[in-house]
Design a protein that fits this description.
With 283 residues, the chain is of the alpha/beta class. It contains eleven helices and eight strands. Helix 7 packs across helix 9, helix 7 crosses helix 10 and helix 10 packs across helix 11.
Amino acid sequence: MAISKIGVLGAGTMGAGIAQVSVEAGFTVVLVDVVPAVVEKAAKGLDKAWAKAVDKGKKTAEDVAGFGKLLSTGTDTALLADCDIIIEAIIENIDIKKKVHAQLSEICKPETILATNTSALSITEIAAATSRPDKVVGMHFFNPVPVMKLVEVIPGAETTQDVVDATVDMSKKIGKEPVVAKEVPGFIVNRILVPYINEAGMVFQEGTASAAEIDKAMKLGAGMPMGPLALADLVGIDIVLAICDYFWKEFGDSKYRASLAFRQKVRAGHLGMKTGKGFYDYK
């Protein structure tokens, strides 16, 4: 199952990053988002990243010219029709993902793999909404995509081994280290990481220490490269909250109940770096 053309649906931070590493690996890439302004912002961001790489001597002007020939952008999902794999990187909402994947399964060619960049949601449930559940797979990238090496590859209940193998092979070709994980809420990393971040939120809401003190303690006392609350700001507090709520719903275990500190931040619109304010002020 050869992959030569990659479609990326969703041109936000994750989608743009996936498109960047795929183009740099020599793949033909189509980056699509239904919001024109998002596509324009992503294209400008990629140009800026590549210009900076040239300035630092990490890329040549010839490299960047080649990237421009491999990458195309647009707002029409029909542009994805002839892709060998489509990596969906839209909002972390299972109902929206199911609807989008159902549409993609009708648009693209029969052999196209449909991959979802989800951090916790059920691959099987998303796949069941399509006409090709055997060709749906999870690909959990990490932010920032150009830097983070891991990709969790998650087969659903009906995903074939050929699809898993092709996805693992493509992940390696774009410079990632794939780990195949069984489908459970949160897979490997977030199953362990989100409860850790959530517990830091509990410590914060109880007034045990300030956000800065909690983060400092975990960096100096546990050797963490980044404190848990700064990490929540980087990931997006809304995403952390959504994963906590999903864990509680799926496992039915109160140990996964979300910190009120996260819920209050989300209600205030303080989602972290992307809004300029979370546990820290980035403005």
